[in-house]
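Backbone-to-sequence.
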C-alpha cells in the first residue's frame, strides 16, 4: 500500500513542469528566509534558526511518512544521514552568509556549487551554452557590490562559498537517494538523524526559542515549513526526473526568484543588470527544457521502494 501511495504522490508532482516546481520551491524557500531575516536573526543566531528548520521538517515528515517502518537497511540509514547533514549544513552556513551580506549576493555566490555540478556532469553543446547563460545571468543579478575589505562581508562571502559547495553535494547525493528509494522517506530520515548530528554546533543557543515566548516558536515553525518542508519535499520529484546536471542548471531560477521576493516583500526594484540577468537565466532554463519533436526528453527513472 505504501509503495502504491508513493507512486500516486509522484505522479501528481510529475504532471507539473519542472520550471513551475522550481518557482514554487524558490518562492516558498526565500519567503521563509525573508521572514527569518526580518523577525529572528536579531536575537537568535542565524545557524540556530537554520537548525530549527531541519527539526521542524523532521517532525512533520516523520509523522507523515513513518519511514522507519518501511524496510530500512543500514546502508539506507547511512546514506540518508549523510544527505541530511549535507542539507542542514548547507542551510546553516547559508544563513550565516545572509546574516552578513545581501540575500541576492549570497545566492549568487552560492550558485557556484550548482554551476560546478552542471559543468562536470553535463553533456552536449546545449548544456554548455545554457550553463554559460545561467552564470552570466546570475552574476548580473548578484552584481559586484561586495566590499571584501570589510571583515563581515569577507566572512559572509566565505560562508556563501561553503554553502555553494554543500549545495553541490545536496544535488549529487539527493539525486542518488531519490533514484534508489522514496526520496521523501530519505529526506525524513536525513532531517531527523542530521538534526541530532549537528546539535553540537548549535549548543545552548537551541534553548533561546524555548524561553523567548510563543511567537518566536511559531515563526520558526513557519520558516521551517516554508523554507525546508515544502521546497525540499517537492524538489525530490525534480531530482528524480532531471538528474544532477539539469537540476543544477534549473537552480539558476533561484536567484531570479529571490529578486522577485525582494521586490514584493522588501519593495526593492530590480535595476537594469538584474533585468538582464533575469532574461539570461530564463533563456538558459528554456534551452534546458527545449526538446524538438519529442527527441531527447528527460526519461523518468523507475523508482524502487524498499
Amino acid at each position: 500500500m505504501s509503495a502504491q501511495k508513493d507512486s500516486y504522490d509522484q505522479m501528481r508532482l510529475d504532471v507539473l513542469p519542472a520550471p513551475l516546481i522550481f518557482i514554487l520551491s524558490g518562492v516558498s524557500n526565500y519567503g521563509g528566509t525573508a521572514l527569518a531575516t526580518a523577525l529572528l536573526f536579531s536575537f537568535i543566531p542565524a545557524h540556530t534558526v537554520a537548525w530549527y528548520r531541519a527539526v521542524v521538517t523532521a517532525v512533520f515528515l516523520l509523522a507523515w511518512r513513518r519511514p522507519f517502518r518501511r524496510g530500512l537497511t543500514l546502508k539506507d540509514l547511512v546514506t540518508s544521514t549523510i544527505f541530511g547533514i549535507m542539507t542542514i549544513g548547507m542551510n546553516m552556513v547559508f544563513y550565516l552568509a545572509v546574516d552578513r551580506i545581501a540575500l541576492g549576493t549570497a545566492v549568487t555566490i552560492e550558485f557556484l556549487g550548482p554551476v560546478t555540478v552542471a559543468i562536470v556532469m553535463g553533456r552536449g553543446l546545449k548544456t554548455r551554452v545554457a550553463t554559460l547563460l545561467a552564470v552570466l545571468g546570475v552574476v548580473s543579478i548578484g552584481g559586484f557590490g561586495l566590499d571584501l575589505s570589510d571583515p563581515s562581508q569577507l566572512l559572509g562571502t566565505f560562508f556563501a562559498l561553503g554553502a555553494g559547495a554543500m549545495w553541490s553535494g545536496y544535488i549529487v547525493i539527493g539525486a542518488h537517494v531519490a533514484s534508489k528509494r522514496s526520496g521523501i522517506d530519505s529526506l525524513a530520515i536525513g532531517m531527523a538523524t542530521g538534526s541530532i548530528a549537528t546539535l553540537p554546533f548549535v549548543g545552548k543557543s537551541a534553548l533561546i526559542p524555548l524561553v523567548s515566548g510563543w511567537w518566536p516558536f511559531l515563526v520558526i515553525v513557519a520558516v521551517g515549513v516554508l523554507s525546508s518542508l515544502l521546497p525540499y519535499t517537492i524538489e525530490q520529484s525534480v531530482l528524480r526526473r532531471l538528474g544532477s546536471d539539469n537540476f543544477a542548471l534549473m537552480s539558476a531560477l533561484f536567484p531570479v526568484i529571490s529578486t522577485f521576493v525582494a521586490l514584493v516583500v522588501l519593495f526593492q526594484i530590480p535595476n537594469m543588470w538584474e533585468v538582464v540577468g533575469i532574461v539570461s537565466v530564463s533563456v538558459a532554463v528554456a534551452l534546458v527544457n527545449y526538446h524538438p519533436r519529442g527527441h531527447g526528453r528527460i526519461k523518468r527513472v523507475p523508482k524502487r521502494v524498499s
